[in-house]
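User: My instructor asked us to take a sequence, write out its structure as tokens, and then describe one feature of it. I'm not sure where to start. Here is the sequence I was given:
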Amino acid sequence: MTEETPRHSVSVTGVVIRPDDGKVLVIKRADDGRWVPPGGVLELDETPEQCVVREVREETGIEVKPVRLTGVYKNMNLGVVSLAFLCEPVGGNLRTSDESTIATWLEPEEAIKRCPEARGIRISDALEKRDPCVRSHNGTSIIL
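Assistant: Let's start with the prediction itself. The structure tokens for your sequence are:
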């Protein structure tokens, strides 16, 4: 019997910052009630940048332009690697989706406070003007 090689899933996170007031786009997830920046699983036929544009649009109605990669995050429990991008809004109308009960713009500090640590840190990292961070977490908390 041959053992299968473990597989990783790749996802993206869009940290969308409004340039006029600095507010951050977040959603309250329909499945678990957690506050998070929008994002989702990378499809085989799309680039990470295309994926973040699609996921933010699907979950919030907001059209974005990815600006830069701000971090790489691995959920050690699930084997999910997420690429976080700082994005700027370029259009669309804010709305909820099947995946969210609330989609809103919050002050960065409020957004970070509402999100689990493993998601809030993506907002903090995106706001820093530095090279991308690489972090590991257990789905909720950062693993040092």
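For the description part of your assignment, you could build on this observation: The CA atoms of residues 32 and 100 lie 10 Å apart. Try explaining in your own words what that tells you about the chain.
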